[in-house]
Amino acid sequence: MVILTGAGISTESGVPDFRSPGGLWEKFRIVEYNEYVESEDARIEDWHRRFYMADQIGTVEPNIGHHTIAQWLNEGKASCLVTQNVDGLHLKAGAPEERTIEIHGNATTTSCIHCKSHHEMTLCRQMFEETGASPKCRSCGGIIKADVVMFGEAMPRDKTARAFEQSEQADLFLAIGTSLVVHPAAALPLHAKHAGAKLAIINRDPTQVDSYADCVVNAEIGEVMRALSS
Questions:
Q1: Among 46, 54, 64, 221, which residue has the fewest nearby CB atoms (within 10 Å)?
Q2: What is the pTM (predicted TM-score) of this model?
């Protein structure tokens, strides 16, 4: 079994779906990758949004969905998890790193775009609040960026290739809490289906892939995952 998760699995933990009406993307302008690299003003704007988001969410913990998937992975019931989420909650719940593909990255960690040195998010915030400038790498003085794939930034080739390879080998592909509109992850269910896998979709709302699925459950994700874990 290969699992794909989206924003819907984290809403029960208090992480909002930022694409929904009134969400974060309606409150803040999207800063694209090239602008982030070239403009200090854009970097300041992006860090301000990032810390605002952290304050709005507060301290979030994995929910029954994250814990159930982690259990499936650790027990060998699932072979791989691909997640579109950047909240890090799957790993926090105990999902093994070697079986987890965070295809859009992780917003809870940061690194230098030049020398790749890692920096604690709390230190980045401290530097930002003390100086009013974007955090700089302690090793080389370069630009620090959250470990997420920004708009306009190339998807990580290794993670993307691995996600498609795993999907092609699946007997069952289970999509949970994703609208299946953001590519390349949105292509994974049909890629698995065409390779011979059964396809199941659990999502609050219908998706454009439902007609290809062998099983569709439209319900609140938490309720469904709670039933599957019992």
A1: 54
A2: 0.90
